[in-house]
Write a structure and sequence with these properties.
This protein has about 200 residues and is of the alpha+beta class. The protein has 5 helices and 9 strands. The strands form 2 sheets. A 7-stranded mixed β-sheet has the order 2-1-5-4-3-8-9, covered by helices on one side. A two-stranded antiparallel ribbon has the order 6-7.
Length: about 200
């Protein structure tokens, strides 16, 4: 009986040790001075509301933001873009060169002119990017975002999609995220930290 108890204790000890090691590995991946999360994102060239194509390679050296949404979005997208417009004003000169990219997950309806008109309601530092239908699945995999077309009763459709805003550092890595339901002060604080290189 004593030997069985000792065996069980040893087994639990090994389990806890493994959990601890995995925790340290995860911590190592998600911590560090740059707060960069590895294996996130992929290079892209997308049609831009600013004209021509935007090559993600040209973004290196400065932090930027990415948000995936669509122009027919009833709440999450306009609220997020409005709040980020407010946050950009709050950070003042520190954010003068910051760029936030709104990438549509509804390229069937969201043409460049449609997205450009939509974004005219927000801060001019918010730029629209329109992938082709063929490009969108690769982007979704690379940036770990979800989107799905959902039929509506009027014969049209809406889109379910990830409501997270991604803050990318100057190295092109994910520094941190902003959730839709976070307080305004938290969102501004995260943006300030990104712009300060933290």
């Amino acid at each position: 009986m004593a030997s069985q108890r000792s065996f069980r204790l040893a087994l639990w000890g090994m389990v806890l040790l493994c959990v601890g090691i995995l925790g340290l590995v995860a911590y190592g991946q998600f911590s560090g001075k740059s707060n960069t999360i590895s294996s996130f994102g992929e290079p892209f060239k997308l049609a831009s509301t600013a004209g021509g194509e935007l090559d993600s390679a040209t973004l290196k050296g400065k932090p930027y933001g990415l948000f995936f949404g669509f122009t027919h979005c009833p709440e999450v997208c306009p609220t997020t873009l409005f709040e980020m417009s407010t946050a950009l004003k709050e950070v003042g000169d520190a954010g003068k060169d910051f760029r936030l990219f709104f990438i549509t997950v509804d390229p069937e309806r969201d043409t460049l002119p449609v997205v450009k008109d939509y974004l005219a309601n927000f801060d001019p530092r918010i730029e629209g990017l329109v992938p082709t239908v063929a490009q969108l699945p690769g982007l979704a995999r690379g940036f770990h975002i979800y989107y799905k077309q959902v039929p509506t009763s009027d014969g049209s459709y809406t889109m379910d999609h990830t409501a997270t805003l991604f803050l990318m550092n100057g190295e092109g890595g994910l520094a941190r995220t902003i959730s839709f339901d976070e307080p305004k002060e938290t969102k501004i604080s995260k943006l300030k930290m990104l712009l300060a290189g933290k």
